[in-house]
Specification:
This protein starts with a strand and ends in a 17-residue tail after the last helix. It contains 15 helices and 13 strands. The strands form two sheets. A seven-stranded parallel β-sheet has the order 3-2-1-4-5-6-7, sandwiched between helices. The protein has a six-stranded parallel β-sheet with strand order 10-9-8-11-12-13. The protein is about 40% helix and about 15% strand. It has helices at about 15-25, 40-45, 60-75, 85-95, 115-130, 145-150, 170-180, 200-210, 225-235, 250-260, 275-280, 295-300, 315-325, 330-345, 350-365, and strands spanning about 5, 30-35, 55, 75-80, 100-105, 135-140, 160, 185-190, 215-220, 240-245, 260-265, 285-290, 305-310. With about 375 residues, it is of the alpha/beta class.
């Protein structure tokens, strides 16, 4: 079976699944990259996967561009994972073969997004070229199917998907054992932007500090709100509690994750997925996540393998964190179950295998037989 994935460039959220699909299809998988990795990303340490044996670079030369057009026609299955691919999608639509679009939610800023040129282009292309073909949606956000329903798109043709960083076999028992007698440590990772809400951990820390809890908060990342956050920490007298640690290479960040008891992800609905959730779950760190984050309803079962709090509700966050601080055995159990979830249900190997299973079902005219995890039905 020939599978082709069209996108801008291969990133660290896609490469593990791509590697597995290349293996499972015995070399019949191709990734079509329509642009090189921007130099700004390279300089910041972004990994370059452009030498992978299955990559075709349409920007290289006319031959590779024509090859991409030919694959859009002839591949058994095509996946489109980026905007600006309308030319290849139109070619594909004429074939009537199984095709997937892969998207986060469209309405990150609510109905304001309908005025976006990219959204208008996508909606026009869908209703004009894709609606009546064999097109399906891989939802890289728990809220994508609801957004699509608003515009009568992909009705009953949405399946769960996501981002799949490489998972590693770690010694989960040893990681958890090391933290049992350590002071309670809290981690926040992200860009210091409005919609990431770096002020929320500070407000939480102030409340818990005043109640006399012994804990630390380490915040990793950079961005335009970094100085404002630093001023807020100093103003609240929390410089001994909260540390701003800057950026770290991903391999070093994963080791830091292993040292912390919980990860906070405080973003609002603008967080399409949030791959740091996958990484925390794979490294023995219990996630306390805002419900609007795209990955949270897929990956976290509340009070089972992590905690979900009401978005932008500081008290809701405090209630969850305080409970875990009081019940560290529960926090440890959540981390253990989260590791199982990411290894057995939401890892790249399972995602690749499930995609092939879904393709088999659709090819034979059946509904998906997958009940949970990637490629199970995404209900609005």
């Amino acid at each position: 079976m020939k599978i082709v994935f069209f996108s801008n460039f291969l990133n660290h959220h896609q490469v593990a699944v791509s590697d597995k699909l290349f293996q499972l299809t015995e070399g019949k998988y191709r990734f079509i990259a329509t642009m090189p990795i921007p130099e700004t990303l390279k300089k910041s340490g972004y990994p370059d996967f452009s030498s992978k044996p299955y990559i075709i670079k349409t920007y290289n030369n006319h031959y590779e561009y024509q090859l991409a057009e030919e694959l859009a026609k002839k591949a058994d299955v095509a996946i489109f994972g980026w905007v600006g691919l309308e030319h290849f999608e139109k070619i594909r639509a004429r074939t009537k073969k199984i095709t997937f679009q892969c998207n986060e939610r469209w309405l990150k800023r609510g109905l304001t997004n309908i005025f976006s040129p990219n959204f208008q282009k996508w909606l026009w292309n869908y209703h004009l070229n894709l609606r009546y073909g064999s097109f399906y949606m891989l939802c890289a956000s728990a809220y994508a199917s609801s957004d699509l329903r608003t515009f009568a798109a992909y009705n009953n043709r949405c399946y769960k998907w996501g981002y799949f960083p490489q998972t590693e076999n770690v010694d989960i028992q040893n990681i958890l054992l090391k933290k049992q007698k350590e002071p309670f440590s809290i981690l926040w990772v992200g860009r210091f932007l409005n919609w990431k809400h770096p002020e929320i951990p500070v407000k939480m820390a102030k409340f818990l500090h005043l109640k006399g809890y012994n804990f630390t908060v380490n915040m990793y990342g950079s961005g335009k709100l970094l100085e404002k956050t630093k001023d807020m920490i100093n103003k609240e007298g929390l410089s001994d509690v909260i540390s701003l640690r800057g950026n770290l290479p991903n391999k070093d960040l994963l080791l830091e994750i292993q040292k912390h008891h919980i990860l906070l992800i405080t973003s609002d609905r603008n967080e399409g997925w949030g791959a740091i959730v996958n990484e925390a779950m794979n490294n023995g760190c219990t996630v306390v996540g805002a419900e609007a984050v795209g990955s949270i309803p897929y990956l976290i079962k509340n009070k089972e393998n992590g905690c979900i709090f009401r978005t932008r509700d500081v008290q809701s966050l405090i209630n969850n964190v305080e409970y875990l601080m009081k019940h560290r055995d529960v926090c440890e159990e959540y981390a253990r179950k989260a590791y199982t979830t990411i290894r057995e249900l939401w890892g790249p190997q399972t995602a690749a295998e499930n995609l092939l299973q879904l393709i088999d079902c659709l090819t034979s005219g059946q509904e998906t037989t997958i009940m949970e995890g990637p490629c199970s039905k995404a209900i609005p």
